[in-house]
Amino acid sequence: MASLETVQSNKSFGGVITKYKFESKALGGLNAQFNVFVPESDGSTKFPVLWYLAGLTCNEDTGPWKGGFLRDAADAGIALIFPDTSPRGAGVQGEDDDWQFGTGAGFYLNATADKWAKNYRMRAHIIEELPAVIQAATSIPLDFTRQSIFGHSMGGLGALTLYLKHRDLFVSCSAFAPISNPTNAPWGHTAFGGYLKGGVDEGKEYDPTELIKTVGGDAGVHILVDYGDADNFYKQKQLLPENLVAAAEKAGFPTSQVTVRAQPGYDHSYYFISTFAPEHIKFHAKFLKA
């Protein structure tokens, strides 16, 4: 098991946010960094876990710096984990050519195309590797029997996908302006066409609109999505939340289980995210602290 190295630690809202790094087997032996926020503790408490997945061009620092999550997480007694958005320094030809693909744009999948398969395995990194590495570092008081997940844009896609694929791991999911139907969106065509041998057809495994059709009207599903109707990417048909709504309704989910809200006048930025961050933390706390 890889050992963690502490990069930086800062007190915040009574708790501590710490950046760690380690050699990641899931990412082909590259160094990986992530942040963990732990609320103030007497040392005997293990905190439920809320994962935050950031979007295109972002990294493990974007959420804690811009999202406004820490205060509400501290108040709710919830720990936060902020992974990176992709491997770094893989040296794959073309990985730095386009902000929508490659470095900073891992799409939270396991690549199957030969060129990318060694390093671009963010699903395995988050679902399998990071929990094991963190739990091996016994000084980090997290309770992985209580987990939820949320994210923004590409990270919202990742959160929804991981939640719907791993219902045994996460009790709730929320997203800010997620790429809701990537097999029908330009970003998804770029990502799946590059990372996956089977292209867009294989990409259905990473498409929330496709995945929710397979779950059925299960009372255990708890999803909240917010997007802004002034979001340029929404207008460019990159997000397609309406398709997720239609698929959820067809699968028999009431809006109490899959809630998708259009927020008038809001865009794609962290001004939007930080506005609704408190509601999302409270949403997850309801299930994590049940």
From TrEMBL:
Provide one Gene Ontology cellular component. Answer: cytosol
Which EC class, in a word? hydrolase
Q: Which residues constitute the catalytic centre? A: 153 (charge relay system), 231 (charge relay system), 268 (charge relay system)
> Where found?
Cytoplasm
Sorted alphabetically, the keyword list is: Cytoplasm, Hydrolase, Serine esterase
What EC numbers are recorded for this enzyme? 3.1.2.12
Give the GO terms filed under biological process for this record.
formaldehyde catabolic process
Q: What is its main location?
A: cytoplasm
Q: Which GO terms describe its molecular function?
A: carboxylic ester hydrolase activity; S-formylglutathione hydrolase activity
Question: What is the similarity comment for this entry?
Answer: Belongs to the esterase D family.
State its role: Serine hydrolase involved in the detoxification of formaldehyde.
Q: Which PANTHER family match?
A: S-FORMYLGLUTATHIONE HYDROLASE
Name by which UniProt lists this protein = S-formylglutathione hydrolase
In which organism is this protein found?
A: Exidia glandulosa HHB12029
